[in-house]
Amino acid sequence: MRLTFFLAAGLIACGTTGVAQDGPGIDPKAIEIAKASSDYLAGQPQISFGWFVTYDTIEDGREKLTSVWTGESAIVRGAGYRSSSIQGRDARDYVFDGTTFTAVFAGEGQFAQIEAPGSFEQLNATLLQDYALELPMGDIIDQSGSAAGFVDLTDAVYVGEVFFGDQTAHHLAFRRYEGDWEMWISTDPANPVPLMISGADPYAHGWPKFNAVLFDWDFAAELGDAPFQFAAPESFEQITLTPVAELAQ
Description:
This protein is α+β, with helices and mostly antiparallel strands. It has a 12-stranded mixed beta sheet with strand order 7-8-9-10-11-1-2-3-4-5-6-12, covered by helices on one side.
């Protein structure tokens, strides 16, 4: 299951044009709350947060297996981005300083770099299009929005206000042809951060789902010295990120 669609649809795309905001299945309150959260994150010059993702795969046509992906991400707009994550037994680090993007495969003792001058939004789009590489939680902090978003939205429901751990959240549910998803957004009007996003693919056998819990939001964290620089250990081997077009040849 590709997580990017649900993450982008769940947050960033709330700010795009062409959003369906009326009709019998559309509750404007759900759209308004989701958009307010999206705008809030897009307006933050610095963001760091942790995340815990579970996602399903269907094996042998019937057995549903759930995998876990955990990590943390940080961005200082105009300066850089970094993310560290563990998926299964694989550790990955991604570092971007506004000029160079580095993917670090610590377990294998390898790293790869590409020149990518420009914004984080440009990097996010380039990696997905040219390398089929999704930056962890990249769409949540991407300011550019997504054309996929809420275009052709068929249902938007404000489920209600619920407890979420030690706080309260707005529970929202959305549907469009490509899939269904839900969101839980903090009711704190001064800090309307997303707390969880859940999605399902209704067209895949077994309806595989994913859940992304987002926590420890911080907009002024101390990131240390040179947080977006990478100095390869001498023992590390530099490898090449291969573009999708070359893999298809």
